[in-house]
Amino acid sequence: MTDSEPTIRATDAKRRATVLQVLPGLVSGGVERGTVDMAQALVAAGWNSLVASAGGPMVREIERAGATHITLPLASKNPLVMRANVRRLAEIIRQHGVDIVHARSRAPAWSARSAAKRAGAHFVTTFHNAYRGKSWLKRRYNAIMAEGERVIAISRFVAERAAAAYGVPWDRIRIVHRGVDVKRFDPEKVAAERIVRLAGEWRLPDGVPIVMLPARVSRWKGHTVLIEAMRLLNRPQVHVLLVGGGGSPRYQASLAQAIRRAGSAVTFRMLGECRDMPAAYMLADIVVSASTEPEGFGRVTVEAQAMGRPVIATAHGGSAETVVPGETGWLVPPGDAAALAEAIGRALDLPAEERRALALREIAHVRADFSIAVMAARTIAVYEELLGPAPHGTPAA
Q: Is this structure's pTM higher than 0.85?
């Protein structure tokens, strides 16, 4: 923990508030990661922390933190199962003395709201993205996330969408940006052996400039925009690493075709998933987030800044809130390959001294505003709004 990170004080034993987080499962993903991080933070702060889900590999992290996991079929959208989950969750709330139920996904939120009302607990929701709803039925399904006594949004962009699309009053919205693990994403903590090993696995030549786009292979992540930008930039010595899994065979083939059309102006590598992203970032001279649709938050841009890597992102969605143009990186219009090419050229040409100064600003920026500790403190502050002041003589969390 750095000096800029908040300290979360433990609660008095007489006031051990209990929070139950509910979500579909604990397999992987940003929602799941945030749930685990909060479970750990609540235990560290002296709160009772429960998580209910259908289970998954990340349950082990919940239990290692000292929190309790309860397995329920909360991933189901079957109305009969969801109705049964109301009864199950209400029993859990009463049995464990749950003060706050925090719903992090839509399907379990429907059951959790009714259970919280039935058992007398507070109800909080988190908008993890700007949920779309073209049909009336879909909008109705999404609208449950607007029903929290407090509605947490992971960015101002998401908050504005929640207010406009679902009518959430601003006095119930609280913006709590997602947090990244600044202990894991710390350039000082990445051993040289890890970087060398990964460079060997990826067969990277020494001394070549690296531009990296870490993202799931999906059309809206902007892979084709980056490919065209590199064609326009025309720097043959640069290697571009497309790091991330997913994508249909058809889309993978279309990317390969786009790379061939770009010619020999640059070397592209499609590398799939990476298990050691801190080491991957250390290999990059520039990290790009080229999403053509707005990100709810933009985890990649924050992780890369935490590692002190020059970042270029599209100027919409959550990324516009996490990158400070001219201070911690560059923002370019979405889908604008020429603007992206110009920004990449400027970043590649940064003198070493300016690059070091940029890295220091980025790291300080993330640790001040986007760490797990900051996210946890702000979330706990939302919980405390609902719980009210501690009894006389009992210190608050």
A: yes
